[in-house]
Amino acid sequence: MSDQVTLKIDGISVSVKRGTTVLDAAKTINIRIPTLCHHEDLCVAGNCRVCVVEQTGTDRLIPACAMPAADGMEIHSNSLKVRNARKQIVELLVSEHRAECTTCYKNGNCELQALSHEYIIGENGYINLIPLKEYTIDYYSPSIIKDDSKCIRCQRCVRTCDELQGVGALTVSHKGSEMKISTFMDKPIYQVVCTNCGQCVNRCPTGALVERHYIDEVWAAIYNEKKFVVVQTAPAVRVALAEALGHEPGEIVTGKMVAALRRLGFDAVLDTDFTADLTIIEEGHELLQRLKRALKDKDPDVKLPMTTSCSPGWVKFLEHIFPEFMENLSTAKSPQQMFGALAKTFYASKIGVEPASMVSVSIMPCTAKKYEANRPEMYASGYQDVDYVLTTRELALMIKQAGIDFNSLADDDYDSIMGESSGAGVIFGATGGVMEAALRTVYEVVTGREVPFDGLNITPVRGVEGVREASILINKTLPEWSFLEGVELKTCVAHGLNNARNVMKAVRDGSASYHFIEIMACPGGCLGGGGQPIPTSSDIRKRRSSAIYQEDSQKVIRKSHENPEIVQIYKEFLIEPLGHTSHKLLHTKYTARERY
Amino acid sequence: MTRIQYSVTDMANKHGRSREALLPILQDIYQAKHVISDEDMVNVARELDISAAHVYGTATFYSFLETQQSGKYIIRLCKTITCMMHGKNPVLQELERILKIKPGQTTPDGLFTLKETNCLGQCHKGPAMLVNDNPHTQLTPESVREIIDSYRREALSY
Ligand code: SF4
Ligand code: SF4
Ligand code: SF4
Ligand code: FES
Ligand code: FES
Fold first, then answer.
1. pLDDT tens, A405-421?
2. Whose C-alpha lies nearest to ligand 1, atom 4?
3. Among the four residues A86, A129, A237, A309, which has the most C-beta atoms within 10 Å?
């Protein structure tokens, strides 16, 4: 049996690998078949039926997303019968949909809206069933709004939460006309196992799942003359923001982004990459301290492997599902929260601003960061350390609201202090980046030499596979670290919480042993975060990733401990890693949570 | 009323811990307790290492599993088209009148829960309803009054 099959779509002959769906075969010859429940990151569901096509010789219409291409097929993707069927399907969906586009957050970026337009469904379709339906809008979460009246039950969210995230916070409950997307016992999202990662938000084709936005609050702060508004920007925002402003994926727009933020009226434009470097110093020393206690002091209470703690979705996931591993989480706060704690203490006194009149805003690729900023642990400065978290999408919208022509902006530089970063801080935005950044520093602290990788590029921890392992042999240590002589430091990198779950299971049953594990909740790391521009796909994530590594390689300083502002902040304020001030401001505690 | 002692772990031991074991375990719990509580659902999820939301999804899909505490007698009146045409609506109205509850509710004395359900396979003798496991067919407003009375008497005689 040959590996290839040949079929005809709309009269055009095409050969594809056996197993390719009709939908993907059509894509290769640039024929777009509309879809709703289909998403390339997820398994086939085949429930919405808008992708139906006609096949010569059969009466029934077939779903292109679920039908494998076969030899000799003659497919018609745009016959009258197909168009009529699709139109009716969209009309039926809309009849159960609270189609109030002008007041909907998804307006202009909604797949259902686009299809309704394409098929000109008009007003005389099926009767509007919304007045007869009971639906709930859950706006209690600081991260996500779930509006059942906008849900078309395509189940992309359920598949995302299961297949990519292994969380299973969402399910299909009830049946028939009562069928809906539910959490456990239909509790509000903030009360259940949901990690706020926003991966479902990134894949929902309608306005049923969206981020909770804080744009108006931020404008109010900017226009309040009594407030000094600082903004920080996460590593992954600069490689994705342009997508939401009409550019191709993979463009780095750091300088334009800084310029735009200044035009929006922020009083200081600073960089989360700076506190990413700081995280490396604190977390790296914490790892070394744990290794010392384990290997030198033979302390039975020390917990290894240590896992990273900068992804708030991962942290919450562990608190729910693996609470027995809570002490394995690094106590280091995420870069966002380190920044927040320092902004209203160190930075405020540096520039002579009362912390009470400072408003701290962060631009994140992430919806879980909104929740993290609201955690009760995050008031180290005496105030809420980070007041508002905006996603990359929200920033793009603010730039549009302000009438700024993004393309014509001249590059601008971050303010100082807390604006300088190393390449190590930049790669935090990609899966494997924290590990690579930590190794660049830890190896050098222990041996006095640079990591033995060409151009400091620790390629074994880079890549797209869900779980990657790498080990690095430590030798010729400095005298102080002689207990690490000959130790093979075993590391593991995982992204997407389903992979994280598998790694932790292996650690629990003893089938894997590591010293250090990096986990990012989102596929691809922060660059694939739930607050990034929609759509997402493996190709888009790859392009953002190349941009991040390109930015790293172009940086003069590549290692966190060589960032001059990091050196300065330790000299002036923090004194030493894991010191008294660090403990107060930069480290945190965790909370065990329910399993649902 | 004697309650069968059970633990979710025993049931998982009996039915296994694969995904297919979910429904039999839920049925057993329902048999034993007449309700599948939040706590039981979380325990099932833990035993089978699946999400609690999915346990809830399965439990709510089936008409014969309940996640809310229900009355001693669960009335399930068929709402499908044949029974509807045989006069289900007056029967429902009569049930609502004498029980003073709407579908989905339970009487304050905890005796009756009124529900509507899909076809019970008794279409030729509609309208039909089930009270717990007992079928009642060819219902009229008069006959349901008697049926309800007989369950009230049965409850009193315990
Ligand atoms: S979800 Fe889409 S179609 Fe529905 S109201 Fe919002 S924009 Fe309109
Ligand atoms: S919430 Fe969104 S992704 Fe989930 S089923 Fe509804 S429309 Fe689809
Ligand atoms: S935000 Fe993440 S964890 Fe929460 S429901 Fe969506 S995919 Fe699942
Ligand atoms: S996209 Fe094919 S059935 Fe939904
Ligand atoms: S329609 Fe009522 S039993 Fe079948």
1. 999 999 999 999 999 99
2. A99
3. A237
